[in-house]
Amino acid sequence: MIWDLLAGVVILAVLALFLRAGFVKHTVPAGHSGLLYRNEVFAEALEPGVYRRFDPLRSEQLVVIATVATALSPNVFEVISKDQFSFRVMVTPLVTIANAREFHEGTPPISKDMAQFYTGPEMRLSLLNPVLSNGIMEAVAAKTLEEFLDDPAGALEGVSTEVAKVLPGVQLDNLLLTSITLPPEVRKMFTEVERARREGLAGLERARAEQASLRALANAARNLADNPQLAQLRMLQTMETAKGAKTFVLGSPPESVPGAEKPQG
């Protein structure tokens, strides 16, 4: 009887260990989507959370894909504008994996040789670089340099349509244009043009000010000629506002009075 009881306990312990070892814990972090495959065949999608599944044969594989907006490493592209100006732009792509299964199954994995240069989601998203390079070059080539500098973000709006062709399930949220590097001679040319424009505006403002001043003097002279009393009123106003001891001589000089004798030299 005792041996039967001990045998039963041993069997239960072995069964418990087997059951415990047969359960597998899967964790899908927040901001990620889980893809569960069974024998290399898609089984179901898992939302963020912790899952315990009975899989004694270890036939299930979990693939976790980040679905939050991701800023990739900035890239520098050499571009040529419509008017044949060559310059560089630095662009940072902001992408979101909208469909994790389409992205995982429709995007070829990157080679092991290149995998050492990329970490996390950038491993496969690095395939976006050639598409961005081609799209940015075409977008800039359709604009003159001045048009591109006036609205660089608007010039690159059409680039996002090419992303879905290379990376299924991925949407390009934005292209952050972080810098534009012009050659020294082009920067000098733009500086000289801007300086000339500013100098022209300053000269125009000076001419307008002089014209307004001359117009005011002409109006004052006309008013004094038509109303001599204005000169006397202006003199009285000057006398009232004068500070300190002042001497004012009223009347006309002797040579302007009829019959007055001029001083002998």
UniProtKB/TrEMBL annotation:
Broad class of the protein's primary localization: membrane
Band domain boundaries: 27-210
The organism of origin for this protein: Altererythrobacter lutimaris
Compartment list: Membrane
A Pfam family of this chain: Band_7
Top-level division of the source organism's lineage: Bacteria
Membrane topology term: Single-pass membrane protein
Protein name: Band 7 domain-containing protein
Sequence similarity: Belongs to the band 7/mec-2 family.
Classification lineage: Bacteria, Pseudomonadati, Pseudomonadota, Alphaproteobacteria, Sphingomonadales
GO cellular component: plasma membrane
